[in-house]
Design a protein that fits this description.
GO terms for molecular function: phenylethanolamine N-methyltransferase activity. The protein is α/β, with parallel strands linked by helices and 285 residues long. The chain contains nine helices and nine strands. It has helices at 9-14, 19-28, 33-41, 54-67, 105-115, 125-135, 141-151, 192-203, 237-246, and strands at 73-79, 95-102, 152-157, 176-182, 206-218, 222-225, 228-231, 249-258, 272-280. α4 (54-67) crosses α6 (125-135) and α8 packs across α9. The longest helix is centred in the N-terminal third of the chain and has 14 residues, at 54-67.
């Protein structure tokens, strides 16, 4: 499922002339997807029984935005999917062609396990059930997962620090009608300027008038993924808003969640989470 690009794509950024970005690429070679999933998507953070938890909050943000009916189309690209699929559970009813992407081959492999329903794949059924509950359409979680698997057409390498993040000959249909990105840009950018440039790079993949749904960490400087300790550029709500406006977006919604004490588990120093719904300005030619 890793598409038609060089599987050693990760090595490309390691030779980046920018030492900050090269350091990020090097650190991510130690990223362990399963450790990341257990840290963030198993209990306590993965306990969806309390409506005050971070998991239900993220799923609500997505479900409520798609329920407006304004974010729909043919093609959606998930930028920096990591090893997770929950961010697309509400999106998949509204887009027939979904592209998932990640810089790391190990994450693309993890996604492939779930998409192919292979033994050892991470169990997202609790998230799928909760998304169905929020949406209230009477859909079963099995139907939800079946639809998402059917609509993810490809899993491709991506490098958000390149002006053409998917490379010069992308297999994804471009421009996309919508982009989703969760915990990616701030986690791979050595500084705020790099975060802003990465946002501008991915925006080239989106049609004028298209929508971006962005979830990320607030005021986080590091997180753990097994042996890897990854640096994060700390961003505030206002810095996210400013980056979106500078990137050519109208901010339709911007919400924040404060991480409660019982979810500050020592796997990172995150203070909260932001959700942004932004619309690219301009009209399609």
């Amino acid at each position: 499922m890793s598409g038609g690009r060089d599987p050693n794509h990760a090595a490309e950024m390691a030779t980046d002339s920018d030492p900050g970005r090269a350091a990020v690429a090097s650190a991510y070679q130690r990223f362990e997807p399963r450790a990341y999933l257990l840290n963030n998507y198993a209990p306590p953070r993965g306990d969806l029984s309390s409506p005050d938890g971070v998991g239900p909050w993220k799923l609500r943000c997505m479900a409520q935005t798609f329920a407006t009916g304004e974010v729909s189309g043919q093609a959606l690209i998930d930028i920096g999917s990591g090893p997770t699929i929950y961010q697309l559970l509400s999106a998949c009813a509204h887009f027939e062609d979904i592209t998932m992407t990640d810089f790391l081959e190990v994450n693309r492999q993890e996604l492939g396990l779930w998409l192919r329903e292979e033994p050892g794949a991470f169990d997202w059924s609790v998230y799928s059930q909760h998304a169905c509950l929020i949406e209230g359409k009477g859909e079963s979680w099995q139907e939800k997962e079946r639809q998402l698997r059917a609509r993810v057409k490809r899993v491709l390498p991506i490098d958000v620090h390149q002006p053409q993040p998917l490379g010069p000959s992308s297999l994804a249909p471009l421009p996309a009608d919508a982009l989703v990105s969760t915990f990616c840009l701030e986690a791979v950018s050595p500084d705020l300027a790099s975060f802003q440039r990465a946002l501008q790079h991915i925006t080239t993949l989106l049609r004028p008038g298209g929508h971006l749904l962005l979830i990320g960490a607030l005021e986080e400087s590091w997180y753990l993924a097994g042996e890897a300790r990854l640096s994060v550029v700390p961003v505030s709500e206002e810095e996210v808003r400013e980056a979106l406006v500078l990137g050519g977006y109208e901010v339709r919604d911007l919400r924040t969640y404060t991480m409660p004490a019982h979810l500050r588990t020592g796997v990172d120093d995150v203070k909260g989470v932001f959700f942004a719904w932004a619309q690219k300005t301009g009209v399609q030619a």
